[in-house]
């Protein structure tokens, strides 16, 4: 097992050498004001059987969990995903691999009263949706595994591929998960329990596995210290095969726009006699903006069945990122929508300039997932959908002396709620995570992003761009990064009022019966009229004869 503990201090944070003390058998830190990342890498033979069984049947597996609490991402940990659990998965040839992963998800990420959970394996027909985009085709389809007797559709979706040369994980899954308590509770051993419990306060957790390295990596990120700062002790591993790497670093802008410069102290616990000073730089695909740039998400109240998502940003925050002058930058947002809410692909993919300008949109760049416009939520099998939209920005004024506009720039995205199952109260709550908002800038062709020791990929939206694209993240301005939308539904028995299930069912039967009787009466009238008319016609003919 290999551990890497990294503390990232702000430039203005103070540091006393007595706050980090290295001895022959341990390293102690006291009162550190810093962000922290813990990364543990273990082999397959060190994992519980249920995890090992899934990984042995997987080519790639990447889990990304983010807290719904607001936090400030610090470089080099600037990347973001929407709150909840994201699964990116590429199975091996074995047909049982996806079934094993779904069994693990049902066990570890058990549905709770707060979770919007779509089970993995359902019997369903195959749907395929595609829309053209700039001469290519973005495919939006479900994962379907053929079986001699039935076709089983997973609730995973197939992400669109910008280029087959830079393909990412072949399947995606998402569920709203406020806490990873169910995952932490399955840790074995006192030491594992201690480390796992610490993840409950983390802002984000990543789990990565690939069949080439046959190693599992778990990373936890805390962007702010606990009260009083970080105080901890890291002891020398008992086994020579284990290793603990320690780093106390600060981050700053590099010489090149795409670089991050870092300096500080490094040590390997039990091997080094003292902390070693270091300084290095590397290109990073995820960057932070030099000035605070924020955004806020809201829905106009009352939302009704066709809510509109508003993304508001101060115009002073929408300055062009400090990317190289020869690069092209565009502002994007990436929506992760559960099955309870969806967008109209035909409406959002329009090229009508009046519609786009009225919503401050440029174009729909990619989409994947459930696109059925009529299906209620209990019919939908896949977890939901992803949407990548390019947002328009205010025109830059040429007069540098002009006072910046203090008003907000708002982009609006029309969405639609699905019909949800009935409830005793006549209402249900849909949890909608905030989207991520970022600038995407093209980078030099010879920029090597793979040398970043803190690189983070498989976020869902990053695979929709060229692998050398630079991303500048906007920070969400809100205490909770999940919106709760109240959805009116059919009221079950037990509630007050006339709009209950039994009353509507009885009323429907009455009206159908009355309608059926009216149709029979009209048919009888027509038949009687036809019969009388025939008799009169026959009598007239007889008289003439």
TrEMBL record:
One MF term in the entry's GO annotations: mannosyltransferase activity
Main location: endoplasmic reticulum
Membrane topology, record value: Single-pass membrane protein; Single-pass type III membrane protein
The keyword Membrane is annotated on this UniProt entry: yes
Purpose: Required for proper folding and/or the stability of a subset of proteins in the endoplasmic reticulum. Component of glycosylphosphatidylinositol-mannosyltransferase 1 which transfers the first of the 4 mannoses in the GPI-anchor precursors during GPI-anchor biosynthesis. Probably acts by stabilizing the mannosyltransferase GPI14.
UniProt similarity note: Belongs to the PIGX family.
Protein name: Protein PBN1
């Amino acid at each position: 097992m290999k551990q890497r503990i990294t503390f990232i201090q702000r430039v203005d944070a103070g540091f006393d050498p007595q706050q980090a003390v290295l001895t022959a058998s341990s390293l102690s830190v006291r009162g550190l004001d810093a962000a922290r990342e813990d990364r543990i890498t273990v082999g397959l033979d060190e994992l519980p059987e249920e995890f090992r069984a899934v990984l042995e049947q997987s080519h790639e597996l990447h889990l990304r969990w983010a807290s719904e609490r607001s936090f400030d991402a610090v470089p080099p940990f600037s990347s973001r995903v929407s709150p909840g659990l994201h699964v990116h998965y590429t199975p091996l040839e074995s047909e049982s691999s996806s079934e094993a992963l779904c069994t693990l998800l049902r066990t570890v990420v058990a549905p709770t009263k707060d979770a919007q959970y779509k089970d993995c394996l359902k019997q369903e027909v195959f749907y395929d949706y595609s829309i053209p985009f700039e001469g290519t085709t973005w495919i939006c389809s479900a994962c379907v595994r053929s079986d001699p007797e039935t076709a089983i559709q997973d609730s995973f979706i197939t992400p669109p591929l910008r280029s087959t040369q830079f393909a990412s994980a072949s399947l995606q899954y998402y569920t709203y998960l406020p806490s990873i308590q169910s995952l932490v509770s399955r840790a074995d051993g006192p030491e594992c329990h201690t480390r796992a419990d610490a993840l409950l306060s983390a802002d984000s957790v990543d789990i990565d596995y690939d069949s080439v390295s046959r190693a599992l990596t778990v990373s936890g990120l805390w962007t702010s210290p606990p009260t009083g700062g970080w105080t901890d002790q890291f002891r020398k591993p008992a086994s020579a095969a284990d290793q603990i790497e320690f780093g106390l670093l600060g981050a700053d802008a590099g010489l090149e726009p795409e670089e991050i410069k870092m300096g500080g102290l490094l040590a390997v616990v039990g091997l080094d006699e003292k902390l070693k000073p270091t300084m290095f730089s590397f290109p990073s695909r995820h960057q932070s903006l030099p000035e605070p740039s924020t955004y806020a998400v809201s829905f106009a109240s009352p939302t009704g069945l066709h809510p509109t998502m508003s993304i508001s940003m101060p115009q002073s925050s929408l300055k062009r990122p400090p990317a190289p002058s020869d690069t092209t930058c565009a502002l994007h947002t990436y929506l992760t929508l559960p099955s309870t809410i969806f967008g109209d692909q035909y409406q959002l993919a329009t090229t009508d300039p009046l519609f786009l300008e009225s919503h401050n949109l440029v174009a729909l760049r990619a989409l994947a997932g459930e696109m059925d416009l009529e299906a209620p939520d209990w019919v939908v099998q896949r977890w939901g959908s992803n949407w990548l939209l390019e947002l328009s920005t205010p025109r830059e004024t040429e007069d540098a002396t002009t006072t910046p506009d203090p008003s907000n720039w708002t982009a609006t995205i029309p969405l639609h709620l699905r019909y949800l199952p009935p409830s005793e109260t006549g209402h249900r709550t849909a949890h909608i995570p905030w989207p991520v908002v970022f600038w995407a800038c093209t980078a030099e062709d010879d920029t090597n992003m793979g040398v970043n020791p803190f690189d983070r990929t498989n976020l869902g939206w990053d695979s929709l761009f060229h692998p050398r694209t630079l991303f500048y993240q906007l920070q969400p301005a809100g205490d909770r990064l999940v919106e709760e939308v109240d959805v009116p539904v059919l009221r079950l028995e037990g509630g007050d009022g006339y709009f209950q299930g039994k009353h509507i069912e009885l009323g429907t039967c009455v009206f159908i019966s009355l309608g059926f009787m009216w149709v029979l009466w009209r048919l009888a009238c027509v038949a009687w009229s036809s019969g009388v008319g025939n008799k009169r016609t026959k009598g007239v003919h007889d008289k003439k004869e």
